[in-house]
Amino acid sequence: MSVEILSASIEYLKGVGPKRAELLKKELGIFAYDQLLNYYPFRYIDRTRFYKIRELNPELPLVQIVGRITDKKTIGEKHKKRIVARLSDETGTIELVWFQSLKWVEENVMRGKVYIVFGKPNLFNGTFSISHPELENYPRPAGVTGNLTLQPIYNSTEKLKKHFLDSKGIQKLVGLLIEQHIREVKESLPPYVMEKYKLISKREALLHIHFPGSAQMLQDAQRRLKFEELFFIQLQLLGSKQQRNLKFKGAVFDKVGAKINTFYKDILPFPLTGAQKRVIKEIRLDTHRGIQMNRLVQGDVGSGKTIVALMSMLLANDNGYQACMMAPTEILARQHYQSLVSLLKDDLVKVAVLTGSTTKKQRTLLHEQLEAGEIDILVGTHALIEDKVKFKNLGLVVIDEQHRFGVEQRAKLWRKNSIPPHILVMTATPIPRTLAMTLYGDLDVSVIDELPLGRKPIETKHLFESQRLRMFGFMKEEIKKGRQVYVVYPLIKESEQLDLLYLEAGIEQMRYQFPLPDFQISIVHGKMSNADKQYEMQRFVEGKAQIMVATTVIEVGVNVPNASVMVIEHAERFGLSQLHQLRGRVGRGAEQSFCILMSGNKLTREGKLRLETMVKTNNGFEISEIDLQLRGPGDLSGTQQSGVLELKMADLAKDQAILQEARNMIIEIFEQDPVLSLPQNHLLRVYLERKNQGITFDKIS
Ligand code: ADP
Ligand code: MG
């Protein structure tokens, strides 16, 4: 019964009607009662504080005053017509001014009466005035929606305001809804969960989120709603992980055979770092338990993820399975291919590459070899997951630079084999813990938090345009020592034309500063053909060019150990994680490396903070946390596509503790009740079942 009432069309709420209902749908996406109930205020104004007129100053935001109307008159003609009233308390007098709704003011604002007045005070000719103040009778009547200490402010739109659905109007509707129907709201969390985390009930939470009884009650309401929101996201993530584990068997890699042993003992040119060893061990444990692995490996640029991937693939090969490795771009795929081939030297395993530019003839051959099981490791781009690419026995998929692959694509991979292959996702974009838990909450996470020994930390400097010659001088010195230099320009979609101009001007300048034949410059940007890019990259990789001028196409993965200087032009225009990615292109060899951030003299506060952060730290996890604080989760690279992050209440930058609690709770629940069969978890089971049929939570709240 109750479910039906709350899903009733908003049209039937008293005071709404067809016209306003239409607007609420169009403007705010509110169709039903429960959606209005879940339309939360975006901020609150403290209504406990009353100002005396003597206390006013022009810097104050919105203020609240109690006073008596001592005078009221209409002045001016036609469109200059306005009503000016005087309002006095025992400390002084201010003016109230209306330019609109004059008839209403005429009839309703009474001389001699005491009001609570609310608005922004402006100082004009020595007198304070408030235009279009909100007026309330004094004293305020008691009741649910009266006696407010914190006044809710709702987002509204121009169109809604025209139909009297400004913040106040929306508040009125919500008030009505709550008075009439709050009892229909069902509890959505199991009682034992609420008890454990001291959460107030759903009803109380909704009441106090809209009409806070006090600051404390508002806080309790927010905590409850945030917890609930994060709890159900975690339920879904860990629920699907749980289902996968119950459903899929997963290939068993129980042999450590000749391939991996030979590689480790005879070929690997350096000892593994402790972190690399630990992660490989985690992968080994995962892959011989008979469940399907879904693991995310996070590691800063240069932390040596490729070796971890390779050794995992060799493990698959040793157990009679094929492996593949997917990269987001053609350049990266080819580079991975080359580094694997050179690492593997003497034909230990057969490696092949497949990208968009593989010819049809090569493709046909490749497909045959794959299906015959003659290829052990296939490296490539998205082309790998096309349905026509069939493996004989695919056991492991490595996805490099994962953030460009969506959940859908991962799912597509699972179907590539009768037993779904193990999946290893590598990301060089360290993301904050809260984001990892939310975006990749259904994956297990490994962290490579250690750089190979002997790596010298990159030195980062921020130079202004006026110091450009110093930068050129420094580049020359480094090139004289035999090193190579990257110079990177932004290329952002919206301003592509302008960016290209910058890039071209930059290239001119470089050619002038670094003339032929002593200096070779290779140029790579997104507007070039793949073949040209390839050619130019190769010149740099082989050391034939000392300088590479590029746009952000080189952002991910490119590995030239001899390159020791990264110059980033217009550095203030890049996001933190992107700057960090770019910087990671250097510092890969034995030499001291440098990163020079060039910027104009005028910086925004945020731009300045970004550059300062880069100068201060090399730690990707630290940088990602600052990035999250600065930009919020929605803007972090790689998170845009994710609906998971459209949170109503919780804020991943601030609510780490609540998220951790919610996740811990779900983990505990699944440990005790793997298929949610206990009566106390019935609610959760129903939630997941509905969710899997595409029914959203709003509808069952
Ligand atoms: P990323 O994590 O950015 O993918 P790579 O796997 O490309 O890093 O490794 C960066 C460089 O460090 C490569 O040249 C690689 O050969 C080297 N490397 C990886 N692991 C080690 C190690 N344990 N000791 C020394 N060098 C290593
Ligand atoms: Mg890499």
TrEMBL record:
<dbReference type="GO" id="GO:0003677">
    <property type="term" value="F:DNA binding"/>
</dbReference>
<keyword id="KW-0238">DNA-binding</keyword>
<dbReference type="Pfam" id="PF00271">
    <property type="entry name" value="Helicase_C"/>
</dbReference>
<dbReference type="Pfam" id="PF19833">
    <property type="entry name" value="RecG_dom3_C"/>
</dbReference>
<comment type="similarity">
    <text>Belongs to the helicase family. RecG subfamily.</text>
</comment>
<keyword id="KW-0378">Hydrolase</keyword>
<comment type="function">
    <text>Plays a critical role in recombination and DNA repair. Helps process Holliday junction intermediates to mature products by catalyzing branch migration. Has replication fork regression activity, unwinds stalled or blocked replication forks to make a HJ that can be resolved. Has a DNA unwinding activity characteristic of a DNA helicase with 3'-5' polarity.</text>
</comment>
<keyword id="KW-0347">Helicase</keyword>
<dbReference type="Pfam" id="PF17191">
    <property type="entry name" value="RecG_wedge"/>
</dbReference>
<dbReference type="GO" id="GO:0005524">
    <property type="term" value="F:ATP binding"/>
</dbReference>
<dbReference type="Pfam" id="PF00270">
    <property type="entry name" value="DEAD"/>
</dbReference>
<keyword id="KW-0233">DNA recombination</keyword>
<dbReference type="GO" id="GO:0006281">
    <property type="term" value="P:DNA repair"/>
</dbReference>
<dbReference type="GO" id="GO:0043138">
    <property type="term" value="F:3'-5' DNA helicase activity"/>
</dbReference>
<protein>
    <recommendedName>
        <fullName>ATP-dependent DNA helicase RecG</fullName>
        <ecNumber>5.6.2.4</ecNumber>
    </recommendedName>
</protein>
<dbReference type="GO" id="GO:0016887">
    <property type="term" value="F:ATP hydrolysis activity"/>
</dbReference>
<keyword id="KW-0067">ATP-binding</keyword>
<dbReference type="InterPro" id="IPR047112">
    <property type="entry name" value="RecG/Mfd"/>
</dbReference>
<dbReference type="InterPro" id="IPR011545">
    <property type="entry name" value="DEAD/DEAH_box_helicase_dom"/>
</dbReference>
<keyword id="KW-0227">DNA damage</keyword>
<dbReference type="InterPro" id="IPR004609">
    <property type="entry name" value="ATP-dep_DNA_helicase_RecG"/>
</dbReference>
<keyword id="KW-0547">Nucleotide-binding</keyword>
<dbReference type="GO" id="GO:0006310">
    <property type="term" value="P:DNA recombination"/>
</dbReference>
<dbReference type="InterPro" id="IPR012340">
    <property type="entry name" value="NA-bd_OB-fold"/>
</dbReference>
<feature type="domain" description="Helicase C-terminal">
    <location>
        <begin position="467"/>
        <end position="634"/>
    </location>
</feature>
<dbReference type="InterPro" id="IPR033454">
    <property type="entry name" value="RecG_wedge"/>
</dbReference>
<dbReference type="InterPro" id="IPR045562">
    <property type="entry name" value="RecG_dom3_C"/>
</dbReference>
<keyword id="KW-0413">Isomerase</keyword>
<dbReference type="InterPro" id="IPR001650">
    <property type="entry name" value="Helicase_C-like"/>
</dbReference>
<dbReference type="InterPro" id="IPR014001">
    <property type="entry name" value="Helicase_ATP-bd"/>
</dbReference>
<keyword id="KW-0234">DNA repair</keyword>
<dbReference type="InterPro" id="IPR027417">
    <property type="entry name" value="P-loop_NTPase"/>
</dbReference>
<feature type="domain" description="Helicase ATP-binding">
    <location>
        <begin position="286"/>
        <end position="448"/>
    </location>
</feature>
